[in-house]
Amino acid sequence: MLYPTPIAKLIESFAKLPGIGIKTATRLAFYTIGMKDEEVNDFAKNLLAAKRELTYCSICGNLTDVDPCNICSDDSRDQSIILVVEDSKDVSAMEKIQEYHGLYHVLHGLISPMNGVGPDDINLKKLLTRLQEESDINEVIIATNTTADGEATSMYISRVLKPAGIKVTRLARGLAVGSDIEYADEVTLLRAIENRTEL
Ligand SMILES: [Zn+2]
C-alpha cells in the first residue's frame, strides 16, 4: 500500500468489518477523511461509547446498557414464557412486531457439532439455572433458525428441558429453511409464533 500510515491503518480497520472488502474499506476511509472534524469526533465517540457502555444482561444475556435489561426488569411482561434466540438482533426483530410479551434468553451462538461447538460454549447453562430458580416459567419457545445448527440446538434444549416437565415449543416452519429470524418479515414472524408446535 502506498498510502500514508494513518489512512492505511484506517483502511485496515474498516476492512475488519463483516462484508467490507479492501475496496469498500478504502472508499470509506477516504470518505471519513473528507468528513467534518465534528462528524468524525461524533463517529469515534459513538464507537467507543457503544463498546464501553453496552453489556450483556446478567439474566437473559441480551445486549443492554442497564443490567438487568429493560425487558427482564419489566414486570408487565409475561413471566411464564421464555423465547430462546441465537443473538440480540433476533430480540430486536421480535420486539419490532410487538406481539410477543414474554421474556427472552439469548444464546450468543448455536450448538454446532460440525464445528465442535457444544452446549457449554454458548449461553445455555444460565437458561437452565433460570428455569430452576424462576418457578413461574411454564413454556420455553425455541426460536433458533432452521439451519442444521439451529435444529441441533433446538433438539438439545428440548431433550434437556422436557424431562423437567417444561413445555418446549418451536416456532412454526413459516420461516424458510436456513432463513434468518433477523430478516423475516413481521407477518411471517407473527405466524411462526402463533403456530408454534410442541416438541
Ligand atoms: Zn435481560
UniProtKB/TrEMBL annotation:
Known role: May play a role in DNA repair. It seems to be involved in an RecBC-independent recombinational process of DNA repair. It may act with RecF and RecO.
Protein name: Recombination protein RecR
Domain Toprim: 80-176
UniProt source species: Streptococcus macacae NCTC 11558
Secretion signal span: none
Lineage: Bacteria, Bacillati, Bacillota, Bacilli, Lactobacillales
One Pfam family, short name: RecR_ZnF
Gene Ontology BP annotations: DNA recombination; DNA repair
Family of this protein: Belongs to the RecR family.
InterPro entries, A to Z: DNA_Rcmb_RecR (IPR000093), Rcmb_RecR (IPR023627), Rcmb_RecR_Znf (IPR015967), TOPRIM_dom (IPR006171), TOPRIM_RecR (IPR034137)
NCBIfam families in the cross-refs: recR (TIGR00615)
